[in-house]
Amino acid sequence: MFSDPVKNVEQCGIQVGQEIADFGSGSGHYSIAAARALMATGRVYAIDAQKDLLTKLKNTAAKDGLYNIEVIWGDIEKENGTKLKSASADIVFLCNVLFQVEDKKGTINEAKRVLKPAGKVLVVDWTDSFGGLGPIPEHVMKKETVKDLFLHHGFHLDREIFAGSHHYGFIFKKL
């Protein structure tokens, strides 16, 4: 079973009216799941460096009647690269993203900056390359490495979640 964004988002405990930042949103599977979980309240900020994927997400959201998604062309690896205010998000998603970014510490620090006190980060990533199905073997981030990165950058582990047979998942809380 592959990772299911709807099931992973359900494990975050999203509440009506929250602000959610989807770092590296791509075509928006997690953004759409979060927008639906918010039940037309709150806001999802879908942030990506690829304008074509953001355009696709914007069109899909409009077609589905989801008007609480705001797309942002930004850089999740740089301070203020997301263009979000400090302490403005309740939850940050980093789903199938960490293996792709060069500056992992910069990405984690940007998540920390935009999160409200005690805000959460949902991390979902590949457990292996699976013969080319996932990222190339050199880019796969072991779950212990991810856990250590967050624990050393001002987060504590809230819980581990089941994210499918090819992925691992964590929910971290900002200290």
Search tags:
single chain; 175 residues; Rossmann fold; seven-stranded mixed β-sheet; 7 strands
How would you describe what is shown here?
The chain is α/β, with parallel strands linked by helices and 175 residues long. It has one domain: Rossmann fold (3-Layer(aba) Sandwich), CATH 3.40.50. Helices cover 27% and strands 29% of the residues. It has five helices and seven strands, in the order H-E-H-E-H-E-E-H-E-H-E-E. The protein has helices spanning 5-10, 29-37, 51-63, 104-114, 143-151, and strands at residues 19-23, 43-48, 69-73, 89-95, 115-126, 155-161, 167-174. The protein has a seven-stranded mixed β-sheet, with helices on both faces. Helix 2 (29-37) links the parallel strand 1 (19-23) and strand 2 (43-48). The protein starts with a helix and ends with a strand. The relative contact order is 0.18.
List the helices and strands and how they pair.
Layout: H1 5-10, E1 19-23, H2 29-37, E2 43-48, H3 51-63, E3 69-73, E4 89-95, H4 104-114, E5 115-126, H5 143-151, E6 155-161, E7 167-174
